Amino acid sequence: QVQLVESGGGLVQAGDSLRLSCAASGSTFSNYAMGWFRQAPGKERVFVAAISRNAASTYYADSVKGRFTISRDNAKNSVYLQMNSLKPEDTAIYYCAADSTTRGGLGLIPKVYESWGQGTQVTVSS
After folding, report:
1. Kind and range of the H or E run holding 37
2. Contact in structure between 112 and 103 (CB atoms under 8 Å)
3. Which of 15, 77, 110, 121 could be bridged to 29 by S-S, CB 3.0 to 4.6 A?
4. Any bridge partners for residue 104, and if so which?
5. Are 110 and 37 in contact (CB under 8 A)?
């Protein structure tokens, strides 16, 4: 199973940008579709973005479409989330996740992902 470590979170002001990174190890990274999820205090973990194994396909939650960009570098065993025009409602812990089993599409719910990182906090002040 792949191990995942997120980084890049922090405290920013509304309108700022952040780039999250997720480094993978322990398994063949290109075997996994990757996703980003987020969880705000007192709320459930929700889908943010996903990318296919070869980066040919991406998908975004409506709430981040046009502001966030997911990408990956299989040579560096890493997936990224570029977040622009951040809003206070983007405040959450952000998790990357790996999915080796879904075929024919991208997983949009947490249960299809078998490996998770520890999360990185993103706080956006108004």
Report:
1. strand 33-39
2. no
3. 77
4. none
5. yes
Residue whose token pair is 């969880």 = 39
Residue 28, H or E segment:
none
Give the span between the Cα atoms of 19 and 104, in whole angstroms.
Answer: 28
From first to last of the 126 residues of the chain, give the pLDDT tens digit: 899 999 999 999 999 999 999 999 999 999 999 999 999 999 999 999 999 999 999 999 999 999 999 999 999 999 999 999 999 999 999 999 999 998 888 999 999 999 999 999 999 999
* Nearest residue to 12 (alpha-carbon basis) of 120, 91, 74, 97: 91
Report helix, strand or coil for 111.
helix
Rounded CA gap, 87 and 110, in Å? Answer: 23
Structure tokens at 87: 């809003």
